[in-house]
Amino acid sequence: MSCSTESDFVPADLDAHEWSNLEPLYRSLVDRKLNCANCLKGLILDRSELDAAASEAMANLYIETTRHADDE
């Protein structure tokens, strides 16, 4: 893997609502070798991007549950 500090780690079509889609990405971060300062910066950027995608998915799920709270 390149040690670029530009982040495009999370695929644009990722379905972040499912842990099975997120887990391989988080595992790849844990397993990543850090050989230089830019590698560490890249890891931080990629983790931030992945966390943002997961947070957005969680927020969207919450919004959907509150929008339909009166449905029984």
Encode the helix/strand succession as letters. HH
Q: How far apart are the termini?
A: 49 Å
Round the mean pLDDT to the nearest integer and report it: 89
The 3D shape can be described as: elongated
User: Largest sheet, if any?
Assistant: none
Tally of strands: 0
Strand percent estimate? under 5%
What proportion of the residues is helical, as a percent range?
55-70%
Overall description:
61% of the residues lie in helices and 0% in strands. The model has no long low-confidence stretch (mean pLDDT 89). It has a domain at 19-67. The protein is an all-alpha fold and 72 residues long.
Keywords:
61% helix; mainly alpha; 72 residues; elongated
Short description:
61% of the residues lie in helices and 0% in strands. It is mainly alpha-helical.
Topology record:
Layout: H1 19-31, H2 37-67
Helix pairs in contact: 1-2
